[in-house]
From TrEMBL:
The lineage of its organism: Bacteria, Pseudomonadati, Pseudomonadota, Alphaproteobacteria, Hyphomicrobiales. It comes from the Bacteria. The keyword Magnesium does not apply. Keywords: ATP-binding, Nucleotide-binding, Transport. Signal peptide: none annotated. This is NitT/TauT family transport system ATP-binding protein.
Length: 257
Protein backbone atom coordinates (compact mmCIF):
# COMPACT_ATOMS: atom_id res chain seq x y z
CA UNK A 1 0.00 0.00 0.00
CA UNK A 2 1.23 3.52 -0.78
CA UNK A 3 2.03 5.41 2.41
CA UNK A 4 -0.03 8.53 3.03
CA UNK A 5 3.09 10.53 3.92
CA UNK A 6 6.60 9.49 2.97
CA UNK A 7 9.79 11.26 4.05
CA UNK A 8 12.46 10.35 1.52
CA UNK A 9 15.99 11.01 2.68
CA UNK A 10 15.04 14.47 3.89
CA UNK A 11 17.87 16.80 4.81
CA UNK A 12 17.57 20.37 5.97
CA UNK A 13 20.40 22.78 6.65
CA UNK A 14 20.08 26.36 7.77
CA UNK A 15 22.46 29.05 6.58
CA UNK A 16 23.56 31.37 9.28
CA UNK A 17 25.22 34.63 8.18
CA UNK A 18 25.66 33.29 4.66
CA UNK A 19 27.44 30.10 5.77
CA UNK A 20 25.89 26.66 5.78
CA UNK A 21 26.08 26.34 9.50
CA UNK A 22 23.61 23.94 10.84
CA UNK A 23 22.14 20.56 9.87
CA UNK A 24 18.69 20.51 11.44
CA UNK A 25 17.68 17.24 9.80
CA UNK A 26 19.79 14.50 8.25
CA UNK A 27 18.60 11.63 6.06
CA UNK A 28 15.08 11.31 7.44
CA UNK A 29 13.24 8.31 5.99
CA UNK A 30 9.79 7.61 7.36
CA UNK A 31 6.53 6.21 5.98
CA UNK A 32 3.22 7.01 7.64
CA UNK A 33 0.28 4.84 6.60
CA UNK A 34 -3.17 6.10 5.67
CA UNK A 35 -5.25 6.54 8.83
CA UNK A 36 -2.28 6.02 11.13
CA UNK A 37 -1.70 8.06 14.29
CA UNK A 38 2.00 8.59 14.92
CA UNK A 39 3.64 10.73 17.56
CA UNK A 40 7.12 12.24 17.33
CA UNK A 41 9.29 12.81 20.39
CA UNK A 42 12.89 13.85 20.87
CA UNK A 43 15.09 16.36 22.66
CA UNK A 44 14.77 20.05 21.96
CA UNK A 45 16.33 20.98 18.62
CA UNK A 46 16.25 17.49 17.07
CA UNK A 47 14.27 18.73 14.07
CA UNK A 48 10.73 17.67 14.94
CA UNK A 49 9.15 20.96 13.91
CA UNK A 50 11.42 21.20 10.89
CA UNK A 51 10.22 17.77 9.70
CA UNK A 52 6.60 18.75 10.23
CA UNK A 53 6.99 22.12 8.54
CA UNK A 54 8.46 20.36 5.51
CA UNK A 55 5.48 17.97 5.42
CA UNK A 56 3.16 20.97 5.77
CA UNK A 57 4.89 22.66 2.83
CA UNK A 58 5.90 25.63 4.97
CA UNK A 59 9.63 24.94 4.55
CA UNK A 60 11.41 23.27 1.65
CA UNK A 61 14.00 20.55 2.31
CA UNK A 62 17.62 21.16 1.30
CA UNK A 63 17.58 17.73 -0.33
CA UNK A 64 15.24 14.76 -0.41
CA UNK A 65 11.48 15.19 -0.45
CA UNK A 66 8.21 14.49 1.28
CA UNK A 67 5.53 12.69 -0.72
CA UNK A 68 1.84 12.86 0.11
CA UNK A 69 -0.15 10.21 -1.76
CA UNK A 70 2.98 9.72 -3.82
CA UNK A 71 3.14 13.35 -5.00
CA UNK A 72 5.95 15.66 -3.85
CA UNK A 73 4.94 18.39 -1.42
CA UNK A 74 5.57 21.76 -3.05
CA UNK A 75 3.70 24.02 -0.62
CA UNK A 76 0.76 24.03 1.79
CA UNK A 77 -2.41 22.27 0.64
CA UNK A 78 -5.98 21.84 1.85
CA UNK A 79 -5.49 18.09 2.39
CA UNK A 80 -3.03 18.92 5.21
CA UNK A 81 -4.39 20.69 8.29
CA UNK A 82 -1.81 22.17 10.65
CA UNK A 83 -2.34 22.86 14.35
CA UNK A 84 0.30 24.63 16.41
CA UNK A 85 0.72 25.16 20.14
CA UNK A 86 -0.47 28.74 19.76
CA UNK A 87 -4.12 28.52 18.90
CA UNK A 88 -4.00 31.03 16.04
CA UNK A 89 -7.69 31.82 16.16
CA UNK A 90 -9.04 35.04 14.68
CA UNK A 91 -9.78 37.09 17.81
CA UNK A 92 -12.55 39.12 16.17
CA UNK A 93 -14.51 36.05 15.06
CA UNK A 94 -16.72 33.84 17.23
CA UNK A 95 -16.00 30.14 17.70
CA UNK A 96 -18.49 29.29 14.95
CA UNK A 97 -17.10 31.92 12.59
CA UNK A 98 -13.56 30.68 13.23
CA UNK A 99 -14.61 27.12 12.40
CA UNK A 100 -16.52 28.31 9.32
CA UNK A 101 -13.63 30.41 8.06
CA UNK A 102 -11.87 27.77 5.95
CA UNK A 103 -15.20 26.57 4.61
CA UNK A 104 -15.98 30.08 3.45
CA UNK A 105 -12.61 30.28 1.68
CA UNK A 106 -13.45 26.94 0.05
CA UNK A 107 -16.66 28.53 -1.28
CA UNK A 108 -19.13 26.39 0.69
CA UNK A 109 -22.67 27.82 0.82
CA UNK A 110 -23.83 29.35 4.11
CA UNK A 111 -26.16 26.50 5.16
CA UNK A 112 -23.54 23.86 4.57
CA UNK A 113 -20.90 25.89 6.41
CA UNK A 114 -23.17 26.17 9.42
CA UNK A 115 -24.01 22.46 9.39
CA UNK A 116 -20.37 21.33 9.13
CA UNK A 117 -19.14 23.86 11.69
CA UNK A 118 -21.82 22.88 14.20
CA UNK A 119 -21.00 19.19 13.76
CA UNK A 120 -17.34 19.71 14.67
CA UNK A 121 -18.11 22.26 17.39
CA UNK A 122 -20.32 19.62 18.98
CA UNK A 123 -17.64 16.92 18.59
CA UNK A 124 -15.14 19.05 20.52
CA UNK A 125 -17.76 19.93 23.16
CA UNK A 126 -18.04 23.65 22.46
CA UNK A 127 -21.71 23.90 21.44
CA UNK A 128 -22.54 26.21 24.34
CA UNK A 129 -19.76 28.57 23.25
CA UNK A 130 -20.42 28.71 19.49
CA UNK A 131 -21.17 32.44 19.69
CA UNK A 132 -18.31 33.29 22.06
CA UNK A 133 -15.18 35.20 21.13
CA UNK A 134 -11.79 33.51 21.69
CA UNK A 135 -10.80 35.97 24.45
CA UNK A 136 -13.61 34.59 26.61
CA UNK A 137 -12.36 30.98 26.30
CA UNK A 138 -9.82 29.04 28.36
CA UNK A 139 -6.65 27.69 26.69
CA UNK A 140 -8.18 24.22 26.39
CA UNK A 141 -11.33 25.62 24.79
CA UNK A 142 -9.29 27.66 22.32
CA UNK A 143 -7.39 24.55 21.32
CA UNK A 144 -10.69 22.63 20.95
CA UNK A 145 -11.83 25.39 18.62
CA UNK A 146 -8.57 25.17 16.64
CA UNK A 147 -9.06 21.40 16.30
CA UNK A 148 -12.67 21.83 15.13
CA UNK A 149 -11.51 24.42 12.62
CA UNK A 150 -8.81 22.13 11.27
CA UNK A 151 -11.21 19.16 11.00
CA UNK A 152 -13.99 21.21 9.36
CA UNK A 153 -12.18 21.64 6.05
CA UNK A 154 -11.85 17.86 5.88
CA UNK A 155 -8.09 17.47 5.58
CA UNK A 156 -6.96 13.90 5.12
CA UNK A 157 -3.88 14.66 7.20
CA UNK A 158 -3.50 16.49 10.50
CA UNK A 159 -0.06 17.84 11.40
CA UNK A 160 -0.01 18.82 15.05
CA UNK A 161 3.00 20.55 16.61
CA UNK A 162 2.75 20.30 20.41
CA UNK A 163 -0.92 21.25 20.32
CA UNK A 164 -1.49 20.55 24.01
CA UNK A 165 1.87 21.88 25.23
CA UNK A 166 0.44 24.96 26.90
CA UNK A 167 -2.41 23.22 28.72
CA UNK A 168 -2.73 22.04 32.30
CA UNK A 169 -2.41 18.29 32.92
CA UNK A 170 -6.12 17.54 33.34
CA UNK A 171 -7.25 19.49 30.27
CA UNK A 172 -4.47 17.84 28.35
CA UNK A 173 -5.66 14.34 29.23
CA UNK A 174 -9.25 15.29 28.35
CA UNK A 175 -8.18 16.66 24.97
CA UNK A 176 -6.13 13.53 24.25
CA UNK A 177 -9.28 11.43 24.74
CA UNK A 178 -11.34 13.81 22.64
CA UNK A 179 -8.79 13.80 19.86
CA UNK A 180 -8.66 10.00 19.87
CA UNK A 181 -12.46 9.82 19.82
CA UNK A 182 -12.53 12.11 16.77
CA UNK A 183 -9.74 10.19 15.13
CA UNK A 184 -11.62 6.88 15.50
CA UNK A 185 -14.75 8.44 14.04
CA UNK A 186 -13.22 10.47 11.25
CA UNK A 187 -10.02 8.48 10.54
CA UNK A 188 -7.41 10.95 9.37
CA UNK A 189 -3.69 10.41 9.23
CA UNK A 190 -2.14 12.21 12.22
CA UNK A 191 1.46 13.26 12.85
CA UNK A 192 1.63 14.68 16.36
CA UNK A 193 4.73 16.23 17.97
CA UNK A 194 5.01 16.22 21.73
CA UNK A 195 7.56 16.51 24.53
CA UNK A 196 5.39 14.40 26.78
CA UNK A 197 6.34 10.72 26.66
CA UNK A 198 3.06 9.58 28.28
CA UNK A 199 1.09 11.52 25.70
CA UNK A 200 3.21 10.06 22.89
CA UNK A 201 2.51 6.48 23.98
CA UNK A 202 -1.15 7.03 24.86
CA UNK A 203 -2.07 8.45 21.45
CA UNK A 204 0.03 6.60 18.92
CA UNK A 205 0.26 3.27 17.21
CA UNK A 206 3.94 4.12 16.64
CA UNK A 207 6.18 6.55 18.47
CA UNK A 208 8.94 8.04 16.32
CA UNK A 209 11.92 8.92 18.51
CA UNK A 210 14.35 11.46 17.09
CA UNK A 211 17.87 12.35 18.19
CA UNK A 212 19.77 15.65 17.91
CA UNK A 213 22.99 16.97 16.36
CA UNK A 214 22.22 16.29 13.65
CA UNK A 215 18.44 15.87 13.86
CA UNK A 216 17.62 12.34 12.76
CA UNK A 217 15.35 9.38 13.30
CA UNK A 218 16.66 7.35 16.21
CA UNK A 219 14.11 4.63 16.79
CA UNK A 220 10.48 3.65 16.20
CA UNK A 221 8.58 2.14 19.12
CA UNK A 222 5.44 0.17 18.21
CA UNK A 223 2.59 0.66 20.64
CA UNK A 224 0.68 -2.60 20.58
CA UNK A 225 -2.14 -1.41 22.80
CA UNK A 226 -5.64 -1.67 21.32
CA UNK A 227 -7.87 1.31 20.58
CA UNK A 228 -9.91 2.76 22.17
CA UNK A 229 -7.28 3.70 24.70
CA UNK A 230 -8.56 4.01 28.25
CA UNK A 231 -7.42 5.61 31.48
CA UNK A 232 -6.90 2.11 32.92
CA UNK A 233 -4.38 1.41 30.17
CA UNK A 234 -2.25 4.29 31.40
CA UNK A 235 -1.81 2.36 34.64
CA UNK A 236 -1.04 -0.98 33.02
CA UNK A 237 2.33 -2.72 33.07
CA UNK A 238 2.45 -2.73 29.23
CA UNK A 239 1.98 1.02 29.12
CA UNK A 240 4.63 1.56 31.72
CA UNK A 241 7.09 -0.63 29.84
CA UNK A 242 6.49 1.27 26.61
CA UNK A 243 6.80 4.62 28.34
CA UNK A 244 10.11 3.54 29.87
CA UNK A 245 11.39 2.35 26.53
CA UNK A 246 10.54 5.67 24.84
CA UNK A 247 11.91 7.66 27.78
CA UNK A 248 15.23 5.81 27.69
CA UNK A 249 15.50 6.30 23.93
CA UNK A 250 14.83 10.03 24.17
CA UNK A 251 17.06 10.83 27.09
CA UNK A 252 19.80 8.24 26.70
CA UNK A 253 19.86 7.55 22.94
CA UNK A 254 23.31 5.99 23.03
CA UNK A 255 22.44 3.59 25.84
CA UNK A 256 19.10 2.64 24.31
CA UNK A 257 20.29 2.35 20.68
N1 LIG B 1 14.85 29.27 10.46
C1 LIG B 1 15.89 28.73 11.11
N2 LIG B 1 17.13 29.26 11.01
C2 LIG B 1 18.19 28.73 11.63
N3 LIG B 1 18.11 27.61 12.41
C3 LIG B 1 16.91 27.05 12.56
C4 LIG B 1 15.74 27.58 11.92
N4 LIG B 1 14.67 26.78 12.26
C5 LIG B 1 15.18 25.81 13.06
N5 LIG B 1 16.50 25.97 13.24
C6 LIG B 1 17.38 25.11 14.04
O1 LIG B 1 17.18 23.77 13.63
C7 LIG B 1 17.17 22.91 14.76
C8 LIG B 1 15.90 22.10 14.76
O2 LIG B 1 14.83 22.97 15.09
P1 LIG B 1 13.35 22.42 15.32
O3 LIG B 1 12.51 23.58 15.71
O4 LIG B 1 12.93 21.62 14.15
O5 LIG B 1 13.57 21.45 16.57
P2 LIG B 1 12.51 20.76 17.51
O6 LIG B 1 12.94 19.36 17.68
O7 LIG B 1 11.12 21.00 17.01
O8 LIG B 1 12.76 21.58 18.86
P3 LIG B 1 11.78 21.89 20.07
O9 LIG B 1 11.42 20.59 20.68
O10 LIG B 1 12.63 22.75 20.99
O11 LIG B 1 10.60 22.65 19.52
C9 LIG B 1 17.33 23.81 16.00
O12 LIG B 1 18.66 23.73 16.45
C10 LIG B 1 17.00 25.18 15.51
O13 LIG B 1 17.75 26.15 16.18
Amino acid sequence: MTPKISFKNVRKTFDIAGKTAFTALEGLNLDIEDGEFITVVGPSGCGKSTAMNIAAGLTMPTSGQVLVDNAPVKGPGPERGVIFQQYALFPWLTVRENVEFGLQIAGKPKDERRRIADHFIELVGLSDFANSLPKTLSGGMKQRCAIARAYAVNPKILLMDEPFGALDALTRVQLQDQLLAMWSKERRTVMFITHDVDEAVYLASRVVVMAARPGRLHKIVNVDLPYPRTEDMRLSAEFSELRNEVWRSVYHPAAAA
